[in-house]
Amino acid sequence: VGDTGSGGITRVYRNDGGVLHDVVAGLPGRVGGSVAWGDYDNDGDLDIALMGIAGDYCTRIYRSEGAPANTSPAAPTGLTAVVAGDTATFSWTAATDAETPAAGLSYNLRLGTATGGINICSPMAHCGTGCRRVAQLGNAQQRTSWKIKLPGPGQYYWSVQAVDGAFTGSHFASEGGLVPVLASLVSAEAQADRVRLTWYAAKPPGTATVYRRTVETGWAALGRITPDGMGYLRYEDTAVEAGTRYGYRLGILESTGETFVGETWVEVPKEVLVFALDGARPNPTSDGEMVVHFVVPTAERARLELLDVHGRRVAQREVAAAGRHAVSFGRGVHLAPGVYVVRLSQGANAQTTRATVLR
To answer: Of 32, 73, 85, 100, which is most buried, counting CB atoms within 10 Å of its CB?
Structure first.
């Protein structure tokens, strides 16, 4: 559908071994429009919905008549499913069709947690008759295998149908079932100084090993964890660096060896520094030395002052580096017993707090 410069044009081309030929369908020309295939009257051949401008903007459906009726393809056979960790690979044998070559068939997979279910992967087709609800290739395209990451432990049911060149679907193949996934990830939470992870196992193992890696390093065991009474396995990793991306997974021992499940990747965020005067520690102090903890977000010079109750400066320290700091008052300065005011300032920011020195 398009504009030749002198008016609209609509043509249908047939692909003959890679060479396109105009079938002279006799459709009216349209400008600025579009076209879609679909078997609107369900007679086994494709019709055309055509929209565009021809004097005014209009949409018409053109029914195909006189063409040989299309037949449905045969259903695929040889269904197999292999589970590795929390990923299942579904495979089948290519189907056949009277009108569409085998290489031109596509495939449409359904997957659910009940017989005939589609809640994990919908085929957009009637599961009983195979009738397609959309005029397009199947969701697996022209593959005869497809990998899907399963959401968790449990029983799954699946099947697949073939879809021919006219987008007609076969009946679904005899349903297959599988019991996958020893454990699945529930959550992964990353903070600047730690990563918290939770997995769930419907049939909890005795223990599981937590593995970690980075983009540059291989998998390394961090430790072993045991499930709680509800089947949850939790781990907190505090040996992390801000700004680093980590991968985690569980290793569960089976009779055939160790199976790895529940893999996830998280990025530890960089710490956001906020101007803050945390105060003196300990407070009160009795040993004549006071350590003040504070945070400055930039390398601009910051001043830390110790004032007596009359506002007179007793001591002063300066820092010129962003980050968390701990500065000591008392070394070289005699701090008499009493109440002091600690003041931190950097640019337009200033905070104060009180500190006490005992005898």
So the answer is: 73
